Amino acid sequence: MPKLLIEKNVPGSNAFALPPCDLNMSPLEDSIPSQFLRQDAPRIPELSEVEAVRHYTELSHRAYGVDDGLYPLGSCTMKYNPKINEWAARLPGFAHVHPYQPARTVQGCLQLMSETEKMLCEIAGMDRFTLQPAAGAHGEMTGAMIIKAYHTHHQDHKRTKMLIPDSAHGTNPATTNVVGYKVVELKSNADGLIDLDDLRAKMDDEVAGLMLTNPNTLGLFEKDIDEIAKIVHGGGGLLYYDGANLNAIMGVARPGDMGFDIVHVNLHKTFSTPHGGGGPGSGPVGVKAFLADYLPMPLIKKEGEEYSLDYDRPLSIGRVRSFYGNFGVIVKAYAYILALGSEGIRDACEQAVLNANYLRIKLRDDYHIPFDRLCKHEFVATSRKQMEESHISTLDIAKRLMDYGYHPPTVYFPLIVKEALMVEPTETESRERLDDFIAAMQNIAQESRKTPDIVLSAPHSTVIKRIDEVQAARNPIVRW
Amino acid sequence: MRYTPNSATVVRKMLQDIGLGSMAELYADIPDALKLSRPLQLGDGLTEMSLRGHLKTMAARNISVEDMPCFLGAGAYDHYIPAVLEQMLQRSEFYTAYTPYQPEISQGILQSIFEYQSLICELTGMEVANASMYDGASALAEAGIIACSVTRKLRVIVSETIHPEYLQTMKTYAKSGHMEIVTAPAKDGVTDAEALLPLIDGQIAALVVQQPNFFGNLEEIGRLEQAVHAQKGMLIMAVDPISLGILKSPAEWGVDIVAGEGQSLGNPLSFGGPYLGFMAVSEKNMRKMPGRIVGQSLDSDGKRSFVLTLQAREQHIRREKANSNICSNEALNALTASIYLTVIGPQGLRKIALRSHQLALYARDNLLKRGFKIKYDQPFFREFIVSCPDPAAINEKLLQHGIIGGYELQDGLMLAFTEKRTQSEIDRLIAVLGGELHA
Prior knowledge:
The structure holds two protein chains of two kinds.
Chain A: H1 28-31, H2 49-61, H3 83-89, H4 92-95, H5 107-124, E1 128-130, H6 136-153, E2 161-165, H7 171-178, E3 182-186, H8 196-202, E4 207-212, H9 225-234, E5 238-243, E6 262-265, E7 285-287, E8 299-303, E9 306-310, H10 327-363, E10 379-382, H11 384-390, H12 394-403, E11 410-411, E12 420-423, H13 431-450, H14 452-456, H15 469-474
Parallel strand pairs in A: 2-3, 2-4, 4-5, 5-6
Antiparallel strand pairs in A: 1-7, 6-7, 8-9, 10-12, 11-12
Chain B: H1 8-17, H2 48-59, H3 83-89, H4 92-95, H5 107-124, E1 128-129, H6 136-151, E2 155-159, H7 164-174, E3 180-184, E4 186-187, E5 190-191, H8 193-196, E6 204-211, H9 222-230, E7 234-239, H10 250-253, E8 257-261, E9 277-281, E10 294-298, E11 304-308, H11 315-318, H12 331-369, E12 383-387, H13 391-400, E13 407-409, E14 412-416, H14 423-433
Parallel strand pairs in B: 2-3, 2-6, 6-7, 7-8
Antiparallel strand pairs in B: 1-9, 4-5, 8-9, 10-11, 12-14, 13-14
Helix pairs in contact in B: 3-12, 5-12, 6-7, 12-14
């Protein structure tokens, strides 16, 4: 069990120093009155450099990333993170540039952002993009605020509701609340798609818009999207595209062509930038031309060959953060799109969908698959069979998968499927990897029948066993 | 370039295996009318070699703070980044991992976040910190929302001495109707207490101040804190973590919520992001805090272990009842901050804060000697404003002499100093400002 940093504290061991400097200084109290000064130094542990390096190296050994193996977390698009992108973001001309430098000293940064915007417009079928939002949920908030600004600008103050399918990511209803709208939930039909009659019944002049993921979180394409768009637009609402699943259609179809007015994309999913153990992400938001005035400011402007920041946007919703976005992440996504090009983007999409369907079909004999038909980049299985046979839950299967060396799929989501296991292999997994994963899943199904205890008590090979999560929440210990 | 490992032959075989004749059949569920009838117009893919050349050329169109000394601050600071950071952050178990939803396989990430939370608590003196927010501006906006939710009031008074982009961000978040922003004026480069105090009444949810404030000056919080708490409002403070090497901690000021920008803790300037929003609160408000929190628990063998906890607050559980929609955060930037603090240690933090302050004093004193006017006569940390009628022209002149100048205000240039600056760089800065060096 690794010690905590604070338990490795050795006074006098840290040798960090600044270069010599012959400033002849008077006491600090002469320039800063004592009421502003700290009495007790913060209790930061003291470690030598080598021990600091070993500490974090040890922690890295107890983590699992895409570089370690298959990471089939549904809805998270854990594809390979190309190494050239990491190199690019660390170039001094990108990494060590201050956001307030004069425009003429940052033309490369602005050009990169402007070109990224154009490429995202082309992929999503939109007219303009802001790169400001820091993550997908931040993009959702930005998009929902644009919807609000649009209706407000048109003196349409009655619209206070947002339609959200019951299969939606949790961020959709949370976003709706965060921007001050009420959630109206839409039912899924027996096919796992939006129930059009329910939509018609709920669409009225108080509805601001509909937030939709397509393909949805079951990995199914909402084939009636044309009709959905007609109903929402006919009622005066706007259509918002949650881009979490864009990897499933990029190069094949575009949200903009399906009637969506606003989209957010997740650069840290679709465009290969790493998740960083939880972030940073980047959630650019694209809109059709009639909404461009509401985008956050500043946007990038190009006049002749010169790029600048455009703050003159009176209808803008304002800023959603400081500066211009997670630029370092944007660099990586830009490099990715350039590397792939038109053909590569489509190839990535196709192979993601192929891999998902390959897994779905190979796993269908051993696992219940509630919507067992052509899926897009992901599908949902369940532990129903294992539950009936030996009371083995989705959580048990997830834990057992770790013993086989895999990160488990997303579990218990979407909420409309009981005991869901949501599997998204991505396009960067080889057939050999997929076959190994299938074999592991088959073994677990067999174990569930023959030796259920080994599944119920999994994991066995990880650095710790299952954790008492209830205790952690009841008596929170959240610092040393 | 492609990153898909399966060859065309393997792909054919896989399609066959699942009873499909072509890739096109995988999209049979998308109506033809909705399919893109042409290839995307993104050009041909680039090989890694071509891509490298292209990106290098593009990066070379920017001037970086590696090329020239930088006196810009205003919320993003050019502090030294020890070599350990770049190396450790390239460990791909960290950077290619997802959020640690599965604790057994993610103990390293979870422990690093637990340690980060602890370090933020040590710096700020607060009791609980979360796993990170997007940046200082959005963290502050969410802090305002928490205060409104806790106090069940709407009015958040914001001093005009906070970073203007933080204020703009707060105003955007306020369009939700979950809070109302009222600004309090500045006087002599600090919050005007005389104008502010009458605004603090029973309607107040929170007062937001920044320490040191946007102009680099130190704010006298004492009277404000008493007034806010007397009305049962909350005191929210944005704070620069480097300054906490020498300055009084937010907890010592009696702050309820700390939210700030942690870029200066080892994160590169990176043209404005990704940075690190941090947030810390007193224990009684722990369950109101947004974002992820890692807790310590025991596994079934009784071993110490770490897990995401108090998730009932979060969007994926609470859905439309959640006060925040944050999901992805800035975990890798938080890890950066932890490694940074570990490498510099407690004395290092103090030395960096002191050196930055001393260099700023050196610059101020020498500017005064040359007859320059310093806009505000206030105690400051590492940033101050030198009065001048045309700061843009001065910045242009500095650039011609190989110096990245300061932040342009209407009638002044705000200069920031970090431990990376040297006396000779400052001498040169002042010589250009004083007109002694001609282009």
